[in-house]
Amino acid sequence: MTQAKIGVIGGSGLYQMEGMTEVEEVRISTPFGDPSDVITLGKVAGVPMAFLPRHGRGHRLNPTEVPSRANIWALKSLGVEWVISVSAVGSLREDIAPRDLVIPDQLFDRTKSRVNSFFEGGVVVHCAFAEPFCPTLSGLLLESARELEGVTVHEGGTYVCMEGPFFSTKAESNIYRKLGMDVVGMTALPEAKLAREAELCYAVIACATDYDCWYESEESVSVDLVVANLSANVSHAQRILASVAQKIGTDRLQQACACEHALAGAIMTDPTRIPVEAKETYQLLIGRYIS
Ligand SMILES: CSC[C@H]1O[C@H](OP(=O)(O)O)[C@H](O)[C@@H]1O
Ligand SMILES: Nc1ncnc2[nH]cnc12
Q1: Mean pLDDT estimate for the chain
Q2: What's the domain count of the chain?
Q3: Per-residue buried b or exposed e for 233-267, using 16+ beta carbons within 10 Å of the residue's own CB
Q4: Is this structure's pTM higher than 0.80?
Q5: Any residues with CB less than 8 A from the CB of 112 and at least 6 apart, and which?
Q6: Does some domain include residue 177?
Q7: Which atom of ligand 1 is nearest the CA belonging to 9?
Q8: Going by C-beta distance under 8 Å and a sequence separation of 6 or more, which residues neighbour residue 95?
Q9: Ligand 1 pocket, mutate which of 60, 87, 184, 222 (most atoms under 8 A from CB)
């Protein structure tokens, strides 16, 4: 099957990659069920890329329903090494205005109903997650975003991931602000954790669409407001993707990040005690550590 080293998970408003050529759609099944939709393989700026709309085409899956394990597994099985998430977020800071871009460097987990590891059934893995996003990929996103004229880009920031699908109460929004969070969204987790377990480089282009509901003099978040601000952001995100595709090196071993070796030393279970079925299931992720 065709392989791509770069995978893009499109969030709200991004359901297809404009300008992708040599397009081929692939339907993939995984040990964790089906991904959100078919994966589109093709080339962006001449570079092979795999594209998956997180909520499915037509936005059919709410944040809790997004099959993140299947999505990350499917991308890994296609040979993807770099995953770029494009995500709509609410701003928790006055200086992050709607339509600004943020490349977050931290995550805070406020989800409640999500499975956040691939590993179960006799395999126990504890990955480091102090730095939840790949610094190399985040750096490339930042560099490419800064090349866009007329776009304000913020370097770093904490993305608080809430469960949804409801938006926050004012009390929650204000508490997030007091705790020093910068943007709020519903989807970076467990995606970032699963990408780490799959030893993929993962980073987010967060597109601010609203001031959530804390800013008394501004309109509170609503689907209409998000959609109105997203269309401008989505075209910026697509230009960043084309630019980053050309910058990504062919050899991950030359990168400074440790994403490619995230499972080294993280598998607690004695390999001789891992059930045969689990060894088979997890071959794609841990085959090289347990054989
Ligand atoms: C349509 S607003 C709420 C929705 O948008 C964001 O999704 P994504 O991260 O996939 O762009 C947010 O996390 C919510 O799922
Ligand atoms: N205010 C908000 N809260 C959660 N997710 C969002 N996505 C876009 N805006 C959001």
Answers
A1: 95
A2: 1
A3: bbebbbbbbbbbbeebeeebeebebbbeebbeebb
A4: yes
A5: 163
A6: yes
A7: 10
A8: 154
A9: 87
User: Residue 87 CA: which ligand 2 atom is closest?
Assistant: 7
- State the closest ligand 1 atom to the C-alpha of 54, by its place in the atom list counted from 1: 10
- Is the ipTM higher than 0.85? The answer is yes
Distance 63 CA to ligand 1 centre (A): 7
Whether 92 is covered by a domain: the verdict is yes
- Measured from CB, residues less than 6 Å from any atom of ligand 2 are 88-90, 167, 184-186, 209-210, 212, 221, 226
The single residue of 37, 210, 224, 270 carrying the catalytic annotation is: 210
Q: What is the pLDDT of residue 172?
A: 98
Report if residue 12 sits inside a domain. Answer: no
- Tell me how far apart the alpha carbons of residues 108 and 141 are, in angstroms, rounded to a whole number: 21
The predicted-structure confidence for 59-76, as pLDDT tens digits, reads as follows: 999 999 999 999 999 999
Ramachandran class of 199: left when φ > 0, alpha when ψ lies in -120 to 50, beta otherwise: left
Is 154 marked as a binding-site residue? Answer: no
User: How far is Cα 255 from Cα 275, in angstroms, rounded to an integer?
Assistant: 34
Is the CA virtual torsion 196, 78, 135, 150 positive or negative? negative
Asked whether residue 250 carries a pLDDT value surpassing 80, the answer given is no
Helix (H) / strand (E) containing 182: none
Q: Which of 105, 182, 212, 270 is catalytic?
A: 212
Domain assignment present for residue 275? The answer is: yes
CA-based max dimension of the chain: 62
Containing domain of residue 276, as a range?
80-290
CATH number, domain of 106, equals 3.40.50.1580
Instruction: Show the tokens assigned to 237.
Output: 């995100």
